[in-house]
Write a structure and sequence with these properties.
single chain; 492 residues; alpha/beta; Archaeosine Trna-guanine Transglycosylase, Chain: A, domain 4; Ribose 5-phosphate Isomerase B, Chain: A; 3 domains; four-stranded antiparallel beta sheet; 20% strand
Length: 492
């Protein structure tokens, strides 16, 4: 099969493999001749599309024809423009779909004293200010001998903030870092400060709230003669504590999984993203939780999500989240639709609507139970929306701060980064999986080759439970652990 039409209302199909000019094609009983070469993941017109008419994909408008487009023609940026505007009206039309039937599942994880589950038992060093990044890196390098027994690793997460910030930026840095300290995958945390930064230790402790002093230690570098010696002592104490935890059987209902895409292509919304959506529906059916972010990559596909908000209250919060992000763009003098990257376009994504309709496929068909602010923790079982941008590192860090035990990251072009939480890379096409085996953990490209989405979703659920039980992701094997903090204001 060379083509797929995603929805019966679509006037374009997507090439599942490269198509040559004059190639004779068939789809759903119709015959079509390709007018030109069309690359895998790109779109072909199934019929003539007059200038000004919507281009339909996923049963949704993904753009408007800039010129008359002939049947068999390549449909892309040269002949299609966005239809997005800065404002839109939303109406709550509730829809619900049956949940899949899934037998109870478990994983081998760690049980924390507060009752939370974890999938890793690591030691983390959290710098409260960028000035101590090098100290944290040295402490990690010189104390790797502590990674033994049930301790899975020792990591730090450098960043440039914690000082010279004001207002919301300062508050978001404080909130994000405190959320990382609370993350259950960290069996022990050393909070590392300089001593003169804006983000004072007193502020940070107030943001953190209650903590277990066996699990969380504090070090202010300006207040000690030798921060490396004291840091090593504190890490040893934390290792002794964290080493007392061991894996045990835990119900899959306690998992929280973040969902993200990056380096997307024209197959993302056909293979990998709906595979993640099938997984999400299955985990939720088991009683677990999933988290979807990338708000700008909901623009143009909001109604696909909003109709599944479980109540008008949740719908109102979702609309507010989207409108606030649109206002963020406008306040900076930017349009809301300049999102697809050069790599996205090369892979077949034409407009932001095209990208968004594929992106939201990761949300499956479950009800949306809550809408969370940036770095706000998951409170409800089910599908959650999380406020955050599309940027890969910023949104993956946001998902970790919200409490995601791991992140499923779909990609059509590949990327080597890893979030603080285990980051599972899922390829949209088999060629990427075969080319970048050192990056990619799971191949969803098989869906384009005939695998049923439900089978791929089952396979992904099995894989997630393996990772939750200790299987390392490719990014973990390379030690790829990074954070990025959302910033919008002045740097002093």
């Amino acid at each position: 099969m060379k083509l797929i039409r995603i929805h019966p209302d679509d006037n374009v199909a997507v090439a599942l493999g490269d198509i040559k000019a004059e190639e004779e094609l068939s789809l759903e009983g119709m015959s079509l001749t390709a007018a030109e070469d069309i690359a895998r993941g790109h779109k072909i017109a199934l019929r003539a599309i007059p200038e000004g008419e919507p281009v339909m994909k996923y049963g949704n408008p993904i753009g408007i024809a800039k010129v008359n487009i002939a049947a068999g023609a390549w449909v892309h940026v040269h002949n299609t423009r966005t239809g997005l505007k800065e404002t839109a009206a939303y109406e709550y039309c509730h829809r619900s779909y049956p949940a899949p039937q899934v037998s109870p599942r478990t994983f081998m994880g760690y049980r924390r004293p507060d009752g939370r589950a974890a999938v890793r038992n690591e030691l983390w060093i959290i710098p409260t200010v960028g000035c101590v990044n090098s100290v944290a890196a040295t402490l990690v390098r010189e104390n790797q001998h502590l990674v033994t027994g049930s301790i899975d690793g020792l990591y730090t997460f450098p960043h440039p903030y914690g000082c010279s910030q004001m207002g919301d930026d300062h508050a978001q840095t404080r909130k994000l870092l405190a959320a990382l300290v609370r993350h259950p995958n960290a069996g022990g945390v050393l909070v590392l400060s300089l001593g003169c930064e804006n983000l004072t230790q007193e502020q940070f402790k107030a943001e953190l709230g209650e903590w277990d002093d066996k699990r969380v230690k504090f070090l202010v570098c300006q207040q000690t003669e030798d921060e490396y010696a004291l840091g090593a002592e504190l890490l040893k104490e934390l290792a002794d504590y964290a080493g007392s935890f061991h894996r045990e059987e835990i119900p899959a209902s306690e998992l929280v999984v973040g969902m993200k895409c990056g380096g997307s292509d024209g197959l993302s919304g056909i293979t990998a993203n709906p595979t993640v959506g099938r997984f999400s529906d299955r985990l939720i059916a088991l009683g677990g939780s999933t988290v979807l972010t990338e708000v700008p990559e909901m623009f143009g596909a909001e109604n696909i999500l909003f109709s599944r908000c479980e109540s008008e209250e949740v719908f109102g919060k979702a609309v507010q989240m989207v409108n606030r992000f649109k206002d963020y763009f406008v306040s900076h003098g930017q349009v809301v639709y300049e999102n697809p990257s050069p790599g996205n376009k090369a892979g077949g994504i034409t407009t932001l609507e095209d990208k968004s309709c594929g992106c939201v496929q990761k949300g499956g068909s479950a009800q949306i139970v809550d809408v969370l602010e940036y770095a706000e923790p998951v409170r409800k079982k089910g599908l959650n929306l999380l406020s955050g941008p599309g940027n890969d590192l910023v949104s993956a860090t946001d998902l970790t701060a919200a409490g995601a035990h791991m992140i499923l990251f779909t990609t059509g072009r590949g990327t080597p980064f890893g979030a603080p939480a285990p980051t599972v890379k899922i390829s949209t096409n088999t060629a990427l999986y075969e080319k970048k085996g050192n990056w990619i953990d799971f191949n969803a490209g098989s869906v384009a080759e005939g695998e049923k989405l439900d089978d791929a979703g089952d396979r992904l659920l099995d894989f997630v439970l393996e990772v939750a039980s200790g299987k390392k992701t490719r990014s973990e094997e390379r030690g790829a652990r990074e954070i990025a903090i959302f910033k919008d204001g002045v740097t002093l």
